Amino acid sequence: MIAYSLLIEAVQVLILLFAAPLFAGWVKTVKCRMQGRTYAGVFQPYRDIARLFSKEVILAENASWIFRITPYIVFGVTVIIGGIIPLISTDLPFAATADVIALVMLFAIIRFFTALAGMDIGTAFGGMGSSREMTIASLAEPAMLMAIFTVSLAGKSTSLTHMVQVMAQGELLLRPSLAFALLAFIMVHLTETGRVPVDNPSTHLELTMIHEAMILEYSGRHLALMEWASMMKLFIFSALGIALFCPWGIAPAEDFPGMLVAIVLLAAKLAVLGVILVLIETGLAKMRLFRLTEYLGSAFLLATLGMLSFFILE
Amino acid sequence: MTPFDIAMASLFLMLSPVILVPCCARYRSFAIHLSFSLTAAASLAAVIAGALAVQYGTITSAVVEMGLPDLPFHLRLDPLAGFFLCVIGLLSFFVSLYSIGYVKGFPAGRSVVRFVVFFALFITGMLLVVLADDAFFFLIAWELMAASSYFLVMFEDEKAENRRSAYLYLVIAHVGAIAILLSFGVMAGLANGFASFQGYTFAAMRATAYPVGWATAAFLLSFFGFAAKAGVIPLHVWLPEAHPVAPSNVSALMSGVMLKTSIYGIVRITFDFLKVFPWWWGGIVLVLGLVSAVLGVLYALMQHDLKRLLAYHSVENIGIILIGLGLAMIFTSFQLPALAALALIAALYHTLNHAMFKGLLFMGAGAVLHATHERNMEEMGGLIHRMPWTAVFFLVGCISIAALPPFNGFVSEWLTFQALLLSPALHRPILSLLIPLGAALLALTGALAAACFVKAFGVTFLGHWRGHHPIQKVQEVDATMRGGMLLAAAVCFFLGILPTHVITWMDILAERLVGGKLAASAGAYGWLWLTPIARERASYSGFNVFLGIAVVVVVAWLLLHARKADIRRVPIWDCGFEKLTPRMQYTATSFAMPIRRIFGFLFRIREETDVVPPVRHPAYPERLRYRLRVRDRFWYWLYQPVGEAAFFTARKIGNLQQGRIQVYLIYSFVTIIVLLVFLG
Amino acid sequence: MPVSFAAQINSVMAALILLTAFGLLIQRRILGLLHLFAWQGLFLGISTAIVGYVTGVHHLFVSSILTLTLKVVLLPWILYALIRKLNIRKEIETLVNIPATMLIGIALVIFSYHLTAPITQLSSLVTRSTLAVALATVMLGLLMMVTRHHAVTQIIGFLALENGLFFAATSATYGMPMVVELGVALDLLIAAFIFGIFFFHINTTFDSLDVEQMAKLKEGD
Known about the structure:
The complex is a heterotrimer of chains A (314), B (680) and C (221).
Chain A: H1 2-34, H2 44-53, E1 57-60, H3 65-84, H4 100-120, H5 124-155, H6 160-169, H7 176-192, H8 211-214, H9 220-245, H10 256-283, H11 292-313
Helix pairs in contact in A: 1-3, 1-9, 1-10, 2-9, 3-4, 3-9, 4-5, 5-6, 5-7, 5-11, 7-9, 7-11, 9-10
Chain B: H1 3-20, H2 28-56, E1 60-68, E2 71-77, H3 79-104, H4 112-131, H5 135-153, H6 160-192, H7 202-207, H8 212-230, H9 239-245, H10 248-274, H11 279-301, H12 306-333, H13 337-372, H14 383-386, H15 388-401, H16 408-421, H17 429-461, H18 479-497, H19 499-513, H20 519-522, H21 542-560, E3 567-570, H22 588-591, H23 593-599, E4 604-612, E5 623-631, H24 633-654, H25 661-679
Antiparallel strand pairs in B: 1-2, 4-5
Helix pairs in contact in B: 1-2, 1-4, 2-3, 2-4, 3-4, 3-10, 3-13, 3-18, 4-5, 4-10, 5-6, 5-10, 6-8, 6-9, 8-10, 9-10, 9-12, 10-12, 10-13, 11-12, 11-17, 12-13, 12-16, 12-17, 13-15, 13-16, 13-18, 13-19, 15-17, 15-18, 16-18
Chain C: H1 3-26, H2 30-55, H3 59-86, H4 98-122, H5 131-147, H6 151-173, H7 178-206
């Protein structure tokens, strides 16, 4: 019934809102362990966000309304995306609002407004961040689209809930096309969430910043919203990868105990994914900006090979 | 009143300024208000006529006893013509409203009468092209449209470059017109077996079944002709020259609707007359569409002239429309009417959307030009503070053209993607492999377009003023200009959140032209959800996206402002370096630099950096000069060789003109002998 | 092992062979190239063994073991010794830049799929769908030889081409007659020794292994 579905939808959005900083904290903790440092604990991002919310907002004199409205729009769009991806169940009434292609364009809205905010202040940092971000994003789009298309060929649809249903309940087949698409998706995931080797999320050197450069001027509650939104974006992208490539355990409709199992499974999968991310980040160095064409070209190549494998081998 | 009567009324109203305005030329302000009110009313009538024609699917024809004896003019209003009447009328209405304020701002020396007369003739020409029902009248209307737009492009003819651009435009338009004429000749001849002249009516052409060879010839000729007018690569060189030099309201009309008349021509000839065709026609259209889309947006990224950037984006969007049309043709040739309907509706929806957001963007660029007297983005910046309304409307245009939800550009691009990704339904392996690569190229185009408009909006409106003259003289534009832009922006928004209504209205076009219906599946779950093929396959709800974002934004804002929330304004953070100047911001050229490095092999780029030799010490240069020139390769590969060949041939033939009377007498003598020999 | 499961594993191996072929195209470092070639040999060996198991053609087991010894162990070791002796260290330059090479590679894969589609439909073998991959590997090996100008990489390209031919034989006709396979294996081994000798000569004559230098041997300079 519809009330039950709305409840699941609400639970999912709440999970997104409150588990995303936990996931970010877990990734940071594992990274610090691997590099032999100590960290302030898995719950530190919560404290960071709370601290930022209580601080004063300081705006540049010529910041326009676009600068002020961007954090809210970015936050809003991220929450909407969270309502569309099946995290724990495919019984989501809001999920029909956007299929995977529309989802990619929703991410584009976030990028568009963040880039505009970067250009708003009128310093060189913001312009540099916006310019690089838009270039890298445009190279990553074909790879992302090909990877998603390959998965949609296997799932026979571009609607996420339907894809998850088909793949979770279908028979277990070894599909090389999905393996290629998964590799391509991991490469695009690192690009879109701004991790090494594309962008260093913890850098403070101007020449190596991409995402940080665009949000450099934000402070107080605006910065809290942007940071929270970027943690949610990491969570969402990881959850999207899990939903596309490892959907077993996501409960179908009307399955209440299955949902509890799904929550536990989601936590386990995300923990493993976090460790994999850290292994990649620690093992690779950040690439030069113009080497990224080869990197993203390889991602496109892998995704195309996946699509070709589907037609040739399956 | 039938839709046809309303359309006729619209034509008469549109022609009335041509007669009325020269009479009251002395009262400038009154003339402006009167003429543009008449064109606005006429456009509104055209919209109503078109909307009713599509809604009720009526077909009305009429014969007007003008023209040559035995070759009268035929007129016809059917759903396809009605749809394009709607597109033309809607944008003309907004631009007429905008023009009141814009033309008032012309310097006192310029003739308003000249402008208004050609403006009215231009829109009349476009309306007649769409309504014409025979080849003769079609070409007359086409010429009227081309000639009046030539005079409008050349409106500021004191500058040599304007005259040159207008001349280039005229040449390419006529090359295209000759190809269209030849194509009509082929079709008319086959329609009547060269027995009488009656084959020239479209009704006769519609009724004929063409043999494949001649049909291919007719298609290639007409596609070449219409592609020249639409600005498809490689026939696009006139677009970035002609659109920027025209007055902005004319650029809006040219980019927004004149290019669409070529789309009308292609759809009319391919789907209405030729009806049966092999799949490789669609393949040519698809490939040219993809090439135009990618190259158009890359050229646009290299520009720093705001109107030239918008002109190159028209090339890109025409490419996207051709992608949809090409797919529709491929699906039709494989007998898949439902998918062909999806692709055709995607293409026509994008036609409507592009008219709206491109018109809005050009109107915005015109407002900026009107206020700052600058077209070069590198001299602008920070205009959002001085021109807040223009900034908002321009932003709506930017979001729409970057295909971001919930505005209209996204809906048509999404439908095009769905059509591209359904290619596995064609059971030809090579096509199923190549068409998804086209989808990847379309994704690249979309992302590059978003980058380009971040650049355009960011450099023009955000940041600090980069210009040399003071910004205090820049002011917001007046109410009529804002009104035109507001209406266009509102239409962009509503087309984005109510797509099922629009598709239901347009469905009759798909039914008549390709034999498939989309609205039944598209609107199967109510007006809120757009489900083109099936709900399980894909679905989208623009209204929900808008509502969701709005709700979260409002809730977040309220929660965060529950207690007193102050904002402190301070100077920008300068990293300890106090002497930040507006020249230290990113410019349009620097924003596009990474993309220029990556894709630069497609252009002829020359970058020169001169260090002005310093007086005091070699390590501290006094001044640095940077020059960048990005040129279109097609000019050197295609146009220059063709131009040189034409001049070479002309010079050789020019040797015939000896200038001596004996030689001419010899020519006449030889001709007489030859005629006597062959006719004796 | 049911037939369809074996066919799936075979498809996975084919996909991995294709992936390594592309990897050879875009890899810059020589040792990386050697490792990729060894992996390709491994996947080829496993694929041959599976086809042998499923179809019962027992001499395929022998050729699988031959492939494994030769292409995974012996040839890479010989090439590695060669590289050590000649002190080759630098990165490899390519004729065309890497994204363009990738795009040409994709076009070749699509082309080979288009070519083999009629055969795939007519054939009744378990391995019919992998013929396109085999042809693509051959073409990619050839592309690699064309776009590189270091002698060692050209040899690796040639060996990758031979891998593709071997894979094509397995896919199309369940392997070649045993005599032919033994003969080809012996030829490869001898070829490896001869390459070694020639590399020393080239290196001492030109003091580099860049094949562009051999353009100096032209008559009209």
